[in-house]
Amino acid sequence: MTDRPHRTFEDLVAEGASVPTEGWDFSWFEGRATEARPSWGYATSMAERLGRASAVLDIQTGGGEVLDFALVKAPKRPPLTVATEGWPPNAVKATALLRPRGVAVVAAPEDAPLPFADGAFDLVVSRHPVRPHWEEIARVLQPGGTYFAQHVGPGSAFELVEHFLGPQPDEVRGGRHPERERADAEAAGLDVVELRAERLRMEFHDIGAVVHFLRKVVWMVPGFTVDAYEPQLRALHRRIQDEGPFLAHSTRHLFDVRKPGGHSAPPA
Length: 268
Prior knowledge:
It is a single chain. This protein is α/β, with parallel strands linked by helices. The protein has a single domain (4-258), classed as Vaccinia Virus protein VP39 (Rossmann fold, 3-Layer(aba) Sandwich). 34% of the residues lie in helices and 24% in strands. It contains ten helices and eight strands. It has an eight-stranded mixed β-sheet with strand order 1-7-8-6-5-2-3-4, with helices on both faces.
């Protein structure tokens, strides 16, 4: 870490551009970037929910890391757990990680209907879905079932986004707004039991971490490549060298949603 300020722009960018991006393991960023975690502890809370469920669906599981953690921590594993993932490299990684836990990973495009029967699950979970498909979530939930998820909120990391793309219109900055998502959930016939939101500090300590982050979280700067954004990368590299870590803020919100009817499990 002590020699990082002396490494060249080219070395740092080449390193950030070479690291594999599959899955949602962010351990490579240790010492290079930080992000505060929401106070509700999503993965641990998910583990508690798993212990009371009989049939679980994890939507857009990524590399399966969060579900794997929750299954290990759960007081009791559900008899049935299934996950979906739309990006083939992630589906391969998730299958390798989750198969030993007895979890089937189903390849399913993010925008396609869920390939499951009506009322198949009493618990549906998701961490950072591209967008929630409320009608499909409502369809596959049993009456009395729960959707428990952590979503990315509006304007997340927009200090970084706008460095590369310039000022964004209000409709873009306001996308993923939790109150809008609440309205969509209710329109699908679901009851929002709890909705919590937090704004969290992020720091990027070198330009290599920025490159890797934008390659991994592809919707931040669509079409990002080092060549296409080299001027902005060089400017940010100089800024970090002169002023220290680049500060941004992520936004997250937690949904605890129930499908009316049946016998709901008691809240955690």
